[in-house]
Amino acid sequence: MIRAYKFLLRPTARQEQALREMLRDHCSLYNGALQERRDAYQHGSKTSIRYGDQSAQLKGIRAFDPECQGRWSFSSQQATLRRLDKAFQAFFRRVRNGEKPGHPRFKGIGHFDTVTFPKDGDGCRRDSTPHAPQARVRLQGIGHIRVHRHRPVEGRVKTIAVKREGDRWYVVLSCDDVPAEPLPPTGVVVGIDTGVTHFLTTSQGVHIANPRFLEAAAGELAEAQRHLSTFPRRTKRRTKKHRAAARNVAIIHAKIRRQRLDYAHKTALDLVRDHDAIAHEKLNTAGMTRAPRPKPDPEQPDVFLPNQRAAKAGLNRSILDVGWGVFLAILASKAESAGRTVVAVDPRNTSRTCPSCGHTAKENRVTQAKFQCTACGLVANADHVGALNVLSRAGLVLCVAA
């Protein structure tokens, strides 16, 4: 299996300054390579610039600017150029498929947060001593940084990445050949229905509460963003207070993200420990949170009809706050490690189909919480009904696969 281990870095003040300089120089390299590709296109160059062409220029760039580009790992700079090349490959793929192109953009220093080292020992070497909570990682140009290694690393380390999140720094180890740790069978199968009112509801009728971390921090976040908005957006040089205000907003968002991840990990672990197979809806979160299209008024030009955009924005915010996509990805990962089975089923009409008689109708869903079948009269919780139908559909899939 392939797994990633994420550990907190504890750099000194001098090392933290060097880490910021490393991000700044890699960001400059990324933007310079992007500018070169744009200039070649605007000047009508018949030969497109690729990763190999720009990677061959690295030696000259490092010799020309030894104070900035020359002090960092050659392999990490190649990884940054490869990152840009992947962005262009995705751009051309979207153009071929007729999708929204989304041309690669220049990165601001505040939005370039990761530097990747493609190989352990090439510009970045980790301490492989087992069961050492205060291990160290050595980065070229920075030195040995303390790592809070809260769990042992399994498998073979493929790549190492240094990442900034708010005011914290992390090292991410991507490992291959990680052994599985199967759990003993329980003989229990469950279906889950995710929602906004409840985080999820199981086919046994158990409701898991939705913590609503973003809503809980909304007041603090709004105050921090209001303070940040008092500074001009376009300035040549940010003041110390401006940087502090932006950092405060980033810290609040990072805290919400950590809370959401922690809750998802704990909920997924409980499900994996107690069940042999878990069925869930195959959700298209990106489509569900898409903003409604404008409705032009056919009688008046340049006038649009109401399309409930504000109400949809509130619903989208609640859906993204729950974090269905993150939770389901974590659930699949933990299930694979534990030897459990996870099945994704078609979500259509799961809350409108009667689990007793099979009657499907829009009128069966009386309210958000109440289900009442218009054919047999069954009354139940709508989320519980959805979880039962998810389990039923997954059972058909499991039987066919067997």
Task: Give the key terms.
alpha+beta, globular, single chain, 16 strands, 7-stranded antiparallel β-sheet, about 400 residues, disordered C terminus, 5-stranded mixed β-sheet, about 40% helix
Task: Give a structural overview.
The radius of gyration is 26 Å and the shape is globular. The protein is an alpha+beta fold. Helix 7 packs across helix 10. 42% of the residues lie in helices and 20% in strands. Strand 6 and strand 7 form a beta hairpin. The strands form four sheets. It has a seven-stranded antiparallel beta sheet. A five-stranded mixed beta sheet has the order 10-9-8-11-14. A two-stranded antiparallel ribbon has the order 12-13. The protein has two domains: 3-176, no CATH class; 189-401, no CATH class.
SSE layout:
Blueprint: E1 3-10, H1 13-42, H2 51-55, H3 58-64, H4 74-96, E2 114-117, E3 124-126, E4 134-139, E5 143-148, E6 156-165, E7 168-176, E8 189-194, E9 198-202, E10 207-209, H5 213-216, H6 218-229, H7 240-274, E11 277-281, H8 285-288, E12 295-296, E13 304-305, H9 309-322, H10 324-338, E14 341-345, E15 370-372, E16 379-381, H11 382-401
Parallel strand pairs: 8-11, 11-14
Antiparallel strand pairs: 1-5, 1-7, 2-6, 3-4, 4-5, 6-7, 8-9, 9-10, 12-13, 15-16
